[in-house]
Amino acid sequence: MVVGVCTIDLHLPGTGSLKDKRQILLSMKERIKKAYNVSIAEVDGNDLWQRAVLGVACVANEGRYVNQVLDGVLNAVRANPSVELVDHHTELY
Q: With the CA atoms of 71, 77, 81 and 86 taken in that order, what torsion angle do they form, in degrees rounded to the nearest 10?
């Protein structure tokens, strides 16, 4: 069993309130959950309007598959025009 964890640091330049931020993140998290069958949650920056840190987890039999899924998640985040990917870090256990 391989567990992959990816931490994604985001900047949300168009948000003017926590409500705006939560709407953007909720929509993005739901699309990613459906498309990639991963667990995803905001893990830091909860009280900041224009910053968010997401944690994404994936479990599978092969590390290669886990990397493929997490790369897909990162590509989906990059494709979202409402957010800017600042940094990310991926670990396999």
A: -100
Q: Are 75 and 69 in contact (CB under 8 A)?
A: no
Q: Which two tokens mark 62? A: 């092969």
Whether 77 contacts 13, CB under 8 Å: no
Q: What is the mean pLDDT of each run of 10 residues along the chain (93 residues)?
A: 97 92 96 97 93 97 96 97 96 96
Beta strands in the chain (DSSP E): 2-11, 39-44, 51-60, 84-92
pTM of the model: 0.92
d(CA 30, CA 25): 8
- The answer to whether the beta carbons of residues 2 and 60 sit under 8 Å apart is yes
- Pair 30, 67: CB distance under 8 Å: no
